[in-house]
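I'll show a record.
***
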Amino acid sequence: MDLQVIQNKIYGIRGQKVMLDFDLAEMYDVQTKALKQSVRRNIKRFPPDFMFVLTSKEWELVTICDQFPSTLKHSSVMPFAFTEQGVAMLSGILKSNRAIDVNINIMRAFVLLRQYALGYAELNQKLENFMIETNMQFNDIYQALTELMSIREEQTKRKPIGFRKDEQ
């Protein structure tokens, strides 16, 4: 399975990167109903930080995306959202060869996303440092120009040198 396809199915919900049950079921080549049934049978393996059920408000926000089929958008059953640990736990309850292969690729996709996030944070820090240095340099230039302008103003206030004829 292509990592890009998997990355496109990872969403940010409640401040966590999650995958939804119907996407996982499609990748594992099982019905969503069967996946949910397996999870419910092994619910002790899925604490709230591994899996949670979306609220109707969250589901409304997620379905604003046009990538979901219309049958899912109007579903009355709220989907399960699995965190990275929840997806890893799914490998313990879904034992087909396809599930194992897909799980390995999903873990790789989560790792890549984490690496991108770390790279982004490092790049952001470098950019911030560059902006601080640049602002300091522009501040020095601004101060030098201000000093030159004040010197010029002092020069224009002096009395002109030479003979002045009074106009009386």
Observations:
- Residues 3-122 form a domain with the Mlu1-box Binding Protein; DNA-binding Domain fold (CATH 3.10.260).
- The mean pLDDT is 78.
